[in-house]
Amino acid sequence: MDVKKIVVVVEDVDAARTALKWALINIIRHGDIITLLHVYNSNSNTRSRRSRSKARLLRLNGFRLALSFQDICNNYPNTKVEIIVTEGDQEGTKIAATVREIGASMLVVGLHDHSFLYK
């Protein structure tokens, strides 16, 4: 059986957590790799000290959020989890590029009113 790489978009909304739980029950098989992907948008010029500090805080909060999603995965046996936290846009370009870059076979996204899929 082939190992699949599955990307789950990490957002601080219930729909994203529900999507992860659904994927763990319905898609993930022994040996598959789950990549928890959080993309933050700092919307700032990284040259100033304040902007760098803001970007650092957004990245840290993204890792904390991804770790909370990893805790959900830990309740399911034999899950292999990777975490990627990166800066990008709100239109999903960075998400699509990351999925292609790691060679994922599936993307799991929780739909909600402010989802990038509606833009």
Automatic annotation (TrEMBL):
SUPFAM superfamilies: Adenine nucleotide alpha hydrolases-like. InterPro entries: Rossmann-like_a/b/a_fold, UspA. Pfam families: Usp. It comes from the Eukaryota. Residues 4-117 form the UspA domain. PANTHER family: ADENINE NUCLEOTIDE ALPHA HYDROLASES-LIKE SUPERFAMILY PROTEIN (PTHR47848). This is UspA domain-containing protein. It comes from Trifolium subterraneum (Subterranean clover). The lineage of its organism: Eukaryota, Viridiplantae, Streptophyta, Embryophyta, Tracheophyta.
